[in-house]
Amino acid sequence: MPPKNFELLPKAGAEGDFLEVAMGPQHPSTHGVFRMDVVLDGERVVKLKPVFGYLHRNHEKIAENTTYLGSMPYTDRLDYFCSMTNNWAYALSIEKLAGLAVPERAEYIRVITGELTRLLNHSCLIGFLLQDMGALGTPVMYAFREREKILDLFESLSGSRMMCNYMRFGGCRCDLPAGWIEEAKQVADNFPRFLDEFEKLLCENEILMARTQGVGVLPKELAINAGVTGPMLRASGVNYDIRKVDKYGIYDRFQFRVPLGDHGDTYDRFMIRVLEMHESAKILQQALKDIPSGPIIDPKAKLRGFRPKAGEAYGRIEAPKGELGFYVISDGSPNPYRYRVRPPSLINLTILEDMCLGNMVADVVVILGSVDIVLGEVDR
Predict the structure, then answer these.
(1) N or C: which end of the chain has fewer CB within 10 A?
(2) Band (90; pLDDT cuts 50, 70, 90)
(3) What would the DSSP string read from start to end of 286-353?
(4) CA 370 to CA 373: how far, in whole Å?
(5) Model-level pTM?
(6) H helices then E strands: how many in the chain?
């Protein structure tokens, strides 16, 4: 007989019982191997405990026993939707540590692949969010149709659709193949048309608004205090985007704005991603127009026998889910002495209970969907 996934808890000083339900670790709504222990008063959430760690793979300890370059393919697997931006954040931290410069053409390629990654991440997240609300099929298939075009570009560039392993310390692994820029321009030029279609289908949908407006509110103060970043933070009205704050790479050359939310609810988190995709398409069009010719890797970069001087560095970028950072300490050996990842999925997940308290159990699934997590990154 299978074990029960619920328990009745006595309610002190009142009639009836609380109901504790285990949602997950295998559940279609949990976006991976993740469990929520939810305590309900009727259908209303009075307590929620996220339980994760099922996908722990010892990522950080493996990196401390591997060469610096040997860890690059492992970063692909943190957020398997966003291998290009994972590579970029790791490469940036090692470049800071070793004092490597990145050629201009490689910087443009990084921006282009990074913004393409943002497009595929946000469009798929919206598709999954609608799937969580019961809109089965159409939104997520629309998103996957566009995602395929971007994955085709990644495959022709890196040889892999998802595990790209493309960035290198001081640049990129290989140059763009012939015709790649024209194909990327076509994707960037057509994407706004897809967004218009997506918005027309979803943004004023009565059911979507009823299920998301005023649901799962994240106040600005709590978001800041909890270290939440990315679209979740901006949906709560906080103007903080590392592309603008740090101006890493060459982001200061591009015109784009940072959309902000007013209410911090699930609808704002949905809309912020839609608006950010418009801005990414603008950045792509600028970068693809201006990309120069030239080398794609720092000639001083040494891939074999790479031993940075003793020291420490923290590199971070505005990944699609928020601040993704790598902290490394070198003792002059071929392996990092210490290697630490700051994954946005994990930090953004820590306030899940605060957003769910007082909401209905059916809203929990939608609120979790709006956080945008990948368990490979949460558990590492």
Answers:
(1) N
(2) very high
(3) HHHHHPPPS-SB-TT---TT--PPSEEEEEEEEETTEEEEEEEEE-SSSS-SEEEEE-HHHHHHTTHH
(4) 9
(5) 0.88
(6) 15, 9
